Fold this sequence. Notes:
Elements: H1 2-20, E1 23-25, E2 36-39, E3 47-51, E4 61-65, E5 72-81, E6 87-97, H2 102-105, E7 106-113, E8 144-148, E9 154-161, E10 168-177, E11 182-193, E12 203-205, H3 216-221, H4 224-232, E13 237-239, H5 251-254, H6 261-273, E14 276-285, E15 288-296, E16 302-311
Parallel strand pairs: 12-13, 13-14
Antiparallel strand pairs: 1-2, 2-5, 3-4, 4-11, 5-10, 6-9, 6-11, 7-10, 8-9, 14-15, 15-16
Amino acid sequence: MRRSAQVRAGLILSGWLAMTLPSFADVSNDTPAGWQARAPRDEIRPAFRYRSDGGPQGRGSFVIEADQREGLFGWWEKTIPVKGGRYYRFSVLRKTERVNLPRRTVVERVLWRDDKNKPVEHDELSRASFEEGKRPRSEPEYPSEQGVDERGWTKVAGVYLAPSGATRAIVELTYNWEPGGRVEWADVALEETPAPPPRKVRLATVHYAPGAGTTSAEKCRLFAPLIEEAARQHADLVVLPETLTAVGRPYIDAAEPVPGPSTDYFAKLAKQHDLYIVAGLVERDRHLIYNVAVLIGPDGAVVGKYRKVTLPRGE
């Protein structure tokens, strides 16, 4: 009985490993050395293909294509040796077909690892109150889009400092979830580069809950002298509190469109003091309201916004 129980345990463990370990495959004999096609499990694996004549210059490309099933997930991967403490530039060209939201469906990233293929720590100590004095673990780098050429190829690139403990970098080219789409990557590179020139930015945060004032306009005006003081101290970016127009009043009473009266007011201050302002507001969009952070530029234009969640919590 003891032996049969061990056999059953071994079969269960083997089955668990088969379900949890990423699957590997050699897609074709001409796939460049070091590149692997991976997926969490074969059941949700998209189709992989290497095109030796692919890409805008015909130098080869990596393709992932999804059928009409939902939730397919896979990525191309390569491990590249690096030297800790050096700067590296990642770049790739990407082209998508039948992908509605590329920034969600298609993801490029770089992960820093040590000789044991374990995540490494940042060199600088954390100043966050919950882990003061600790070295935080390095998180993946996510290169940004740099523009699209006339043939539809998007350049994705970024320059990063490898943590001193890093000896290798894992480059991943990922396709997530969307049915029926296709993505092609070409000219993938991760190369050492000189350190970029410093770009110093002075940040200011305003810790103030505007209890006074009964309207959104009155609460916004309470921040004018605080923003003026931040500008006097040469701040480039001023971050205001979350849902500042809803302090002491219902969310629904503070909700307004973005852009709207509150963003217009802070836009005037941003232009007046030649700085960026992040304002935490309550946004109304049709019948929904959101906790939103709005970034306003020195020209008074809304650079972007980030919706955290619909409000109120009871909904």
